[in-house]
Amino acid sequence: MPTRPNSKPLIQRSQLMRLPRLLDMMYRPAELAEELGIHVDTIYRTYIRNGLPHERQDGGEIYIHGLACAAWVRSQFKAKRKRIPLADGQAWCLRCRIPAPIEAATRRPLGKKRELVQAVCPRCGATINRIQRSMLPSPSDALSDGEGLGVGSGVGLS
Ligand SMILES: [Zn+2]
User: Fold this and answer.
1) Fold adopted by 84-137
2) Contact 69, 53 (CB under 8 A)
3) How far is the CA of 7 from the centre of ligand 1 (A)?
């Protein structure tokens, strides 16, 4: 009886091809799954479990930023092929296929803990993206994902 290989690649190339259709907006997991052509369970069981940046609202609904998702998926795909760690202040340039320095970046928050940093590759002029932990200090939740987020905050974003 064949055992199911656990090393199945997280990201298929067919999903990479669909990334450009993701927009600068928040998606529900079902919407994102449809855009990427995957089952919604894959979003929950594989993507989110492996670190896809997402925002969990007070009611428990999950929202995912389209561009952040695209950047994350690409980073996962690259990580499988070459393991070039990005230093602080660098982002991966998809066109040059090497890390590029982040200069004059624009930052936008992704949820409470992460931010999307965008800049222009000084070598080729392509937009480069990096998702990183938010620079803003956040008490006590530095490493815990997924639970305890609502405690004490009481702030509803809508
Ligand atoms: Zn470049």
Assistant:
1) N-terminal domain of TfIIb (2.20.25)
2) yes
3) 31
What CATH number should be reported for the domain whose range is 12-83? 1.10.10
- pTM value is 0.47
Residue 130 Cα to ligand 1 midpoint, Å, equals 14
What are 111-137's pLDDT values in tens digits?
888 899 999 999 999 999 998 888 655
**Cβ neighbours of residue 142 closer than 8 Å, sequence gap 6 or more:** 133
Place of tokens 């392509």: 126
pLDDT in tens, 81-92: 555 678 889 999
Residue type, 49: R
**Six-digit token string for 52:** 């896809």
Q: Report the separation in Å between the CA atom of 74 and the middle of ligand 1, taken as the mean of its atom positions.
A: 15
Report how far ligand 1's centroid is from the alpha carbon of 46 (Å).
30
Residue type for position 55: E
